[in-house]
């Protein structure tokens, strides 16, 4: 069985979980070869790489154009879809209960 050292802490005690590799010492998760593309990857407020299907949590209250309500901090958003940034910074497509289909900026969410 092939093993890999953790790219973050260099631990040799890593294991494979589906397509991901996991380090039990520092809790780092990665996809082999993805380190090369990390500069282009969509990252959350903590620097974690986001992928299609991830669940995220909003980290601050967000005003919504055309609505009197705001998306409150702590709102969980399930199964996001990453999209090409169209120049306005919105790179996540999602559906939020009570608001419907929305676009969010990855800098205002954290991976849950």
Verbal overview:
It comes from Jeotgalibaca arthritidis. This protein has strands spanning 15-17, 20-22, 29-30, 56-58, 62-63, 70-71, 76-77, 81-82, 92-96, 100-104, 109-111. By secondary structure, it is an all-beta fold. It has 2 domains: 1-39, N-terminal domain of TfIIb (Single Sheet); 54-111, SH3 Domains (SH3 type barrels). It has a 3-stranded antiparallel β-sheet, with no helix packed on it. Strands 7-4-11 form a 3-stranded antiparallel β-sheet, with no helix packed on it. The chain has a 3-stranded antiparallel β-sheet with strand order 8-9-10, with no helix packed on it. A hairpin with a 6-residue loop joins strand 5 (62-63) and strand 6 (70-71). It is elongated and about 55 Å long. The two termini are 30 Å apart. The model has no long low-confidence stretch (mean pLDDT 88).
Number of domains: 2
User: Low-confidence stretches at least 5 residues in length (pLDDT < 50)?
Assistant: none
The backbone outline, from C-alpha atoms, is: elongated
The rounded distance between the terminal residues' Cα atoms is 30 Å
Structural class: mainly beta
What pattern of helices and strands is seen along the backbone? Answer: EEEEEEEEEEE
Give the fraction of residues assigned to helices.
Answer: under 10%
CATH topology of the largest domain: SH3 type barrels
Give the radius of gyration: 16 Å
Q: What does the main sheet amount to?
A: 3 strands, antiparallel
* Fraction of residues in β-strands: 25-35%
The CATH superfamily of the largest domain is: SH3 Domains
Broad CATH class of the largest domain: Mainly Beta
Number of helical regions: 0
Give the averaged pLDDT, no decimals. Answer: 88
Number of strands: 11
